[in-house]
Amino acid sequence: MTRFWPLLAFALLCVFLYIGLFRDPREIPSPLIGKPAPSYQLPTLEGEGKTLTQEDLKGQVTLINVFASWCVSCRDEHPVLTAFLKTRPTQVIGLDYKDTRAEAKKWLDEMGNPYQAILFDAEGRVGIDFGVYGVPETFVIDRHGVIRYKATGPLTSETLQKVIRPLLDRLDQEPSS
Amino acid sequence: MKRMAWIFAFFFTLGLASAEEAQPLSAHPKTEARMMTLANVLRCLVCQNQTLADSHADLAVDLRRQISEMIEAGQSDDDIKAYMVARYGDFVLYDPPMKPTTVLLWVGPFLLVLLGLGLLIRTRRESGDTPRRSIENDALERARRALLEDQKPQ
Q: Within an 8 Å CB–CB cutoff, is residue B52 touching chain A?
């Protein structure tokens, strides 16, 4: 038996390395999950002096999608997200991160605008409060304003269907008070 | 020869131009120094093997500005670290704290050393217990017996 120990140890190492192949080392577990979304007060992209705060989103399960016109992988994500929202209508708020109004509006004209409202975060300060480090990012926020899930990087239809859809369905079932 | 000197001078100045460090963000050298010490122990989230101080990523520049502002607002180093951890997790600290989720990180190497030592001692002991049987030993044994036979009175 003793002579098989090294083989066993090697097999175990292989298992760990194999699992490691399918994990994303860049993905950092967000400490914000399970905590209330950070408070903010931001102008909307449309301007006109309108501002929104976290209180305006309470009462409904909400997706916050962080995007920017300069972000290349947002171009990949945008049609996928838009298609998903057609099959599963959800309140979705855009957070335009470190962008200019003109560029963002041009980008949305071209790509389509699925958002009910867009927060305009020119300096990226609200982005920092949300722990944003790789645009696009998406947060799922429940009725009480608590962050329940965060995706970093472009959403794929697989993540949307297998993770986000069931989560949205479950959160919709939760009592509102 | 003169041309060579010109070429040297050209490349030398090029080197000087690219050796420029990240732009200081604060007007106060004291704040700047404290910010850099802090930025040296915080990890950049974008290029994950660089410190906030080394990184030129947009987010790193923003976070350095944020740190400077917090210093000028009179916040302590611990406040600033707590601010970063609240947003990005323990991952931002190059020196992560000891807590249930990081215990393995801290004691793992020592456990592995202990395991290795245990295995070493065990294998040493096992090979010591069994008498060595080899061709030389057998030959020695036969020779010894032959010698004893010889010494026997006929």
A: no
